[in-house]
Amino acid sequence: MANVSNVTRLRETPAHTAVEVSNLNHVYEGREGKVAALEDISLTIEAGRFVVIVGPSGCGKTSLLMMLAGLRRQTSGTILCAGRPIVDPDPERVGVVFQEASLFPWLSALDNVEFPMALRKAPKDERRRRADEMLNLVGLQGFGGRYPHELSGGMKQRVSIARGLVQDPPVLLMDEPFAALDEQTRMTMGHELLRIWSQTNKTVVFITHSLTEAVYLADEVLVMSARPGRIIDRIPITLPRPRNYEMMASDVFGRLRDRIWQQIRTTP
Asked: Quick one: what percent of the chain has pLDDT higher than 70?
């Protein structure tokens, strides 16, 4: 495992806005008529930040993430990434890692990582080089020839993260990527994700239901209300980096987690 302390000291956060959301609303047709899913969401995320979104089930966290990715269209409002609107998927600006690894079972790990570059017809040598680099980054050196059925759950998610990074997007969106993993693997993957983030200077927007995971990973936690989803709190996480597991037992960690829980528990 890489030394997180060393890479963190080298990490430089660019001083500009990576994502800007203004007056975003989303209404869809339900069985009983129109349903307001998201209401008047405005936020800015500075480049290089690790931002975690939490909220009660059904509050629209995933819908918001899909709109940031250009995979779902909002009813009104604007979403800018690097100063330009997001209206369609743009994997060169925004990478996405889903809860399920969703790997193609007939492709090797290396070919799965290459796939987004193959879609845009990048030269084979270039995409092979990038895929190799990303597999190395996520700790899967020597596993490029393995097929998904030969990989553990954590290894599949590493491949998925490598695929999300292969086109070097400045923003990486992650929708509960470790939810299906056992607790030990989930903790390990969180630590590894912080290592990768420290080395790449990506802006990460991460959804989770785990309040412990939220506090452990984040620079800032955004708390959403029950539907219609709104941002009801922005909680800076000032725990020093690099993070370590011992922090979870600290009073500061517990108070931060309790503040998030109180917001979610009392949201109407």
From this structure: 93
Structure-block tokens of residue 183: 């607790």
Kindly give, in sequence order, each residue whose CB lies less than 8 Å from that of residue 205, ignoring residues fewer than 6 positions away: 19, 45, 51, 52, 53, 65, 68, 171, 172, 173, 174
Dihedral sign computed on CA atoms, order 173, 92, 133, 202 = negative
pLDDT at residue number 268: 59
Which of 234, 230, 169 has the alpha carbon at shortest distance from 204?
169
pLDDT range class, residue 11, cuts 50, 70, 90:
very low
pLDDT surpasses 90 at 198 = yes
Cα–Cα nearest to 63, from 204, 213, 173, 154: 173
Paired sense of beta strands 231-236 and 220-224, if any: antiparallel
pLDDT(210) > 90: yes
**Main-chain dihedrals φ then ψ at residue 4, nearest 5 degrees:** -65, -35
The whole-number pLDDT of residue 3 equals 39
What is the model's pLDDT at position 33?
83
